[in-house]
Amino acid sequence: MEANIYIMKLPDGPRAPAAIQLMLTLFRPLETLEEYQKRYGDIFRPMIGRGDEFVVLSNPKAIQELFSADPKLFCSGSGNKILHPLVGDWSLLLLDGDRHQSQRRLLNPAFHGERMRAYAQLIRNITEQVTSNWTVGKSFIARSVMQEISLRVILQAVFGLDEGERFQQLQRLLCGMLDTFDSPFKSSLLFVKALQKDFGAWSLWGRFLRQRKQADRLIYAEIHKRRQQSRFDGEDILSLMMVACDEAGQPMTDRQLRDELMTLLLAGHETTASALAWALYWIHKLPTVRDQLLKELASVDKDADPGEIARLPYLTAVCQETLRLYPIALFAFTRILQAPFRLMGYEFAPGTRISPCIYLVHHRQDIYPQPKQFRPERFLERQFSPYEYLPFGGSNRRCLGMAFALYEMKLVLATILSRWELALVNQRPVRPVRRVVTTTPAGGVPMVVTGQKSAYY
Fold this sequence. Notes:
single chain; alpha+beta; five-stranded mixed β-sheet; 457 residues; globular; 19 helices
């Protein structure tokens, strides 16, 4: 009897009103998560505005049990409904079951093998183009520049567009859409459906809807233009998607293409831009990190294959530590139970929403001693399991663009650091803030150009 009582016991958690917990999550996400973990342990049960049970995990063993379970026990796409206004019904992020697996198989080739090597020169060229107007003494906001680089990279990788009116319009509209949610207050529009009211073009939500409509018009125009071609032999992702067919031999519809393109465009640049801004901050905040990284980059021939640069151990460790300390997404995809599920001595009912907290796992003292310190050497000293280090989530919902994002981070950093000498405008600590559903450096990391190198990649 006692064992049954124990098994049925639910995790503890904060009992403050759901509205207050939601506000704390929006405006003080990291501090709130740390306070909850300290008070309630590695598995706790907050309330964030829904009637369903919500459970947060930061125990690697619990995450391993979750990720190793039969994916059919869960729905994950429906747990991402918050993103629906941005990406639409057919986004890979919102699909489940066979539809999710089928769509994932269609998109997978665009982010692996020969395609990755084909993106290398694109990434280098765009980085050089965007930074070509820098001069010694010029100051800039790192996140803004990284966003321009990553957006141009994804636009060209997805559409093959690198110039022209349609390219410029899409660039402006996508930035405008995301800027609608560029603060904790504005991000509440996504979390609180009651705030999603169109009060005209002057209102935040109204402006977002109009920008989305204009972006849709441009995307559909590009799709229709491609449909009129007799063959799709381009190297961009749209061309690859238009020739792909599912198991029944059916190609993707215009709506499916639109939703997946919007997912790639929004998720494929926003996250990378924030990660690159954090990396530049830490590299220039800590002279020992900068010196070691520059020494490693100098050891590589300027004509080195991009794959050789991407395999550099310290550069890789810098990128890994960047994504450990302030992971762009605080949580892996929420799993919504479709059947009773036993986890770490608890038994949860169908409808329970279980979410691994990437941030809390990455800040466990027992796995990462002195977790608040930026120390790339951690990743040279030992390997971490996919349940201890999971910046891109895990299991069947791991980010499809993981390899692309890491490849881009490494090549952008190598290209910039091999050409330019930079410094932080000030040494004040930078705190993370919410932007859309990600965490990004407050103020964007102001930097200044202090020198230019004659030889670079």
